[in-house]
Amino acid sequence: MIGLKVQINHQTPVLAAGDDLGVLNAILSCTGPLGPRSQVDPEKEPLDIFLTLGGLTRRGPQESEEHPRWLHQDGLGVGDRVSIEVVQVDEATPAETAFAAREQEREEREYFEHCRSIYLELRHKYESLPL
To answer: Which domain of life, per UniProt (predicted)?
Structure first.
């Protein structure tokens, strides 16, 4: 199996892989006031650095799909070291959680409805602006 070996600082590495996976990802995100010219209000949107290690199964039409998650690490900061290695493995760390792919579809629909309502509320303000 192809897997991702992820280590944060000197913590024990997490080995994400599965014999039924079609997607495997490690996402490191930094949000908030990241640079001196950033127009982000640190009181409203403080610096947030986090890592997520997850995936999506591809089991075929007879079985339901899941989104396993091996790791969600909040509270990372400047100086933290994150290493990601692509590996070939026979066994992996068990996923911390997994949720049904249909649940993801429902969440996506809710997000879409939220975005659409914001768009409809603000479109008069921005649609007349040149691109």
So the answer is: Bacteria
Q: Is 129 helix (H, G, I), strand (E, B) or coil?
A: coil
Q: Given the DSSP bridges, would you call strands 14-16 and 66-73 parallel, antiparallel or unpaired?
A: unpaired
**Cβ atoms 51, 73 nearer than 8 A:** yes
pTM: 0.71
**What is the Cα–Cα distance from 36 to 60, expressed in whole angstroms?**
49
Q: Within 13 Å and on the Cβ side, how many CA atoms surround 84?
A: 14
Contact criterion met (CB below 8 Å) for 23 and 59: no
